[in-house]
Amino acid sequence: GENVEQHPSTLSVQEGDSAVIKCTYSDSASNYFPWYKQELGKRPQLIIDIRSNVGEKKDQRIAVTLNKTAKHFSLHITETQPEDSAVYFCAASSTSGTYKYIFGTGTRLKVLA
Amino acid sequence: DVKVTQSSRYLVKRTGEKVFLECVQDMDHENMFWYRQDPGLGLRLIYFSYDVKMKEKGDIPEGYSVSREKKERFSLILESASTNQTSMYLCASSIPGLTDTQYFGPGTRLTVL
Fold first, then answer.
1. C-alpha dihedral over B79, A91, A95, B32, to 10 degrees?
2. Measured distance CA(B7)–CA(B27) in Å, rounded
3. What is the pLDDT, as a whole number, of residue B53?
4. What pLDDT is stored for residue A96 in this prediction?
5. Which residues of A touch B33 (CB under 8 A)?
6. Which of A66, B19, B43, B62 has the fewest CB atoms within 10 Å, counting from its CB?
7. What is the phi-psi region of residue B14: left when phi exceeds 0, alpha when psi lies from -120 to 50, beta otherwise?
8. Radius of gyration of chain A (CA)
9. Cβ B43–A32 below 8 Å, yes or no?
10. Looking at residue A53, what is its pLDDT?
11. Of chain A residues 48-67, which have a CB less than 8 A from chain B?
12. What DSSP state is assigned to residue B26?
């Protein structure tokens, strides 16, 4: 069936360094790729998303890249800060179908001060 | 601002009890979703609904049912709770074809003893 693989499961970086989280999807019909951040005890919140008609999108310190041929997409966080510590989930969706997401298993990011 | 609320933040039930988890959204969203979140497994889709009285099975529907009698309300039902249904349950809603973004509720942590 459809699945999304996410790596790494945990990631520790020093404050100010960059963090990269990678996801690979299996359904070639996927055309929408959101990233969610979930802080401890809180709900997942969308931080950035990308559609299949673009290869890269940036919003301040976060960026997402998409390689449709290889079916993978990545989240890049630059100049990490302690408040970036959270669990990050990638997802893939086909907007021509049922709009359901297939989520990755999550990455716990720790930014060390 | 989209608001998705869930009836309880914490719930403790006994094995064999019937459990109702309720989700309400105030933005007239057509799509609503129920996920369970377990460490290392990410968010897994239980059921979703794209219209009143419509429902579709997700990836792990066994042991669950749903009800959507009104557009704003989506209920998850555990007919006979079991200990392996102890988990965090998250509800989400979205408008299909507009932004496709799913907005999450705060979650219900269910413990079945």
1. 30
2. 17
3. 87
4. 65
5. 100-101
6. B62
7. beta
8. 14
9. no
10. 84
11. 49
12. S
Tokens 């990836």: give the residue. Answer: B59
Cβ atoms of residues A113 and A15 within 8 Å? yes
Model confidence pLDDT, tens digit, residues B95-104:
776 567 899 9
- d(CA A12, CA A15) in angstroms, rounded, equals 10
User: What pLDDT score was predicted for residue A97?
Assistant: 62
Q: Residues B41, B85, B8, CA angle at the centre, nearest 5°? A: 100
Instruction: Spell out the residues 6+ positions from residue B63 whose beta carbon is closer than 8 angstroms to its own.
Output: B78, B79, B80, B82, B85
Tell if the CB–CB gap between B90 and A44 is shorter than 8 Å. Answer: yes
Q: For residue A46, what are the β-bridge partners? A: A36
Spatial separation of the C-alpha atoms in residues B63 and B89, rounded to whole Å? 14
Tell me the C-alpha distance between B43 and B46, whole Å: 9
Specify the pairing of strand B4-6 against strand B103-104: unpaired
d(CA A8, CA A110): 12
For CA atoms B73, B11, B39, B65, the dihedral sign is negative
A46: chain B residues, CB-CB within 8 Å: 101-103
Residues in chain A closer than 8 A to B32 (CB atoms): none
- At A73, the amino acid letter reads F
Quick check: B58 and A100 CB within 8 A?
Answer: yes
Nearest to A7 by CA among A26, A25, A23: A23
What distance in Å separates the CA atoms of residue B9 and residue B23, rounded to the nearest whole number?
11
